[in-house]
Amino acid sequence: MTLFDDVVSQEDFATVYAIQALTNPRVLNELGDLSLLSSNEIPFGIDGVNYVTAPFTHINPEGSRFSNGDFGVLYLADTIDTAIKETLYHQDKYFQNLQGLHYDTVDMRCLKVTFSASVVDLFQVKGIYEPEDYSLPRRLGAELKKNAQQGFQYYSVRNQGATCWGLFSPIHVTGAIQTKHFEFIFDGKSMSKVRELLVHQPLHLS
To answer: Which of 94, 134, 183, 197 keeps 20 to 30 A from 68, CA to CA?
Structure first.
């Protein structure tokens, strides 16, 4: 839970944020850099608002396939399998660059996301599906954002034939609910195993 989850409107958020800024700076750090996202783009009141807002306030400075790091993108996949293959690749690449690391694990939450947006079809655009070279898709992503496009759809690079989406704002999301929980295991050489963790449901006593 974050401050995003505690309020249901932009006006409430402004009030609570001002109070927290004076009394609890740690909470503000969890929200990320709010200067990167206008408050009217935050979908207050939906399930999982903190999850869908994070890619825009905690931007990876190294960028992603369709961003050079100047702006955030919320990436979505058509299936759990596609989501695992996409995220596993990037986690593996990150951990392999950590010197002297022999073992580690990463907890990954699987979210069922619903959204409503007009997306640009990039399925047949050549040059954006290179495994490592992101130069063309990054230029394309910057152009789409500059032209105020809401998002785009494209083929998954890590799961052939699957579909992925990218959204330039969290405001298009209508809900994000955790469905499963996974653990990625790094054995010192690669992300060698994916293990599903049980999500414990609270007991309702009567």
So the answer is: 183
Give the three-state DSSP class for 40. Answer: helix
SS3 string of 103-159? Answer: CEEEEEEEEEEEECCCEEECCCCCCCCCCCCCHHHHHHHHHHHHCCCCEEEEECCCC
Helices (H), the chain: 3-6, 10-23, 25-31, 49-57, 80-96, 135-146
pLDDT tens track for 162-183: 999 999 999 999 999 999 999 9
Instruction: Quote the tokens at residue 108.
Output: 């990954």
Identify the CA nearest to 53 among candidates 26, 71, 74.
74
pLDDT digits (tens, 9 = 90+) for 190-200: 999 999 998 66
Helix (H), strand (E) at residue 77:
strand 74-77
Distance, CA of 156 to chain centre = 15
Please give the backbone phi and psi of residue 82, each rounded to the nearest 5 degrees, phi first.
-65, -45
Q: Which two tokens stand for residue 115?
A: 């959204």
CA-only gyration radius of the chain, Å: 18
pTM for this prediction = 0.86
Q: Counting Cβ atoms within 10 Å, is residue 104 exposed (0-12), middle (13-18) or buried (19+)?
A: middle
Cα distance between residue 151 and residue 167, in whole Å: 4
The structure tokens 């990054």 sit at 138
**What is the DSSP secondary structure assignment for residue 170, as one 8-state letter?**
G
